[in-house]
Structure prediction request, 401 residues.
Amino acid sequence: MANGTGAIEQSLANRGCWLTATQRLVLLFCIVTSTPCAAETLKQALIGIFPGVLREDGAGLASVFSRTVAASFPVTGTSSAYVYRFDPASDSFQRLNVPLGPVFSERAATVGRRKLSVAVNYLIAEYDSMNGQRLDAMLSSDPTKGGDHITICASAVLCEPVAALAQLDLEAEIVTFSATYGVTPDMDISVSMPLIRTALRASTTFTGPDPRLPGTATSFPFHFSTSTSEAATGPGDLLLRLKYVLTRSGAADLAAGLTVSMPTGDRDNFHGTGDTLIGAAIYASHTYAERIEPHLNISFVADAAKLDRSQARYSAGVDLRTFDWLTLSTDFLGRSDITRPDSINRPVFLQVERADVWQFSTGAKVTPLRRTGLFFNAILPLNEDGLRSNLVVTFGVEGVF
Prediction:
């Protein structure tokens, strides 16, 4: 920035023109808030509204957005609404009288040998806050001195306090196609492919002091803003899952799970993490009186490229079969970063912190037609950690063949 203003001032000086204090300040803000050429991706658009040293804030937010949209919201489970077991007496597969299963958790039961469950679901989330701070009203703070303004210098002697406001609006719509096949009575394999649309609207506003009061921040007559609005649609990360039943005896049925997330989504448009994720899980559940089915899931998801981005994920809940055609589900969903995944050296708006994200999930599954299930679910935040949406709505349809 100093080189840019210095070159301009030298050029004017050579022509016999010198800048007044007001002109220099206006020139400073024009340089500070200048935007690059049209952005090709949402990441470029986001970083582009953070000029100069503030670009690191934009890059840090972009990293969080890509990981959250692509991987941090729970994908729908592989547990089918219908569970079949082979009955030797009738020499055929019979449907079990059990609840229709959770939406975002897993139960230990498999779909049944040679049974295929196909599902499609739609999820919409509008991100409202990060670590308790509203995304549409992020105020600047000096990372070294405190206060609500930062120091911008156009030269060694021309430095002014500047207050900044960032306003972000990020929305994601995700349509996920998934299929689960029962290889054996004890093993399911499944594949899920999301199609993601992300929309970003963002702006930054900078205000500077009255040049008649140099070195103070008591009056802010100069306002400079830059904004962007971008949207992108594309595939997300391909998810492969395997579930194997360990036991069906005792107080709880147990199954082991293995997940592999392939980086098929575009990270720069917040459609993928850009990394391969490998997860191992234990699922526990049991049906009582053919009506009540509690379940517990514990898993660890490792980022193969950067272990700092690995997470522990867990859920606990219960499904209640109120009628043969209706199951009500509730779940506590959680995920915890192992450590701080990405940090900003000198954060002006916010720091990327290690997060423990806790959410409450509630919904219902119905079976209006034979071998067909419909579900609706809502997720509400229970704490403020991480990038959050005040409400995540999901609904979908499933068929078993």
About this structure: The domain at 54-132+170-203+233-400 is CATH 2.40.160.40 (Porin).
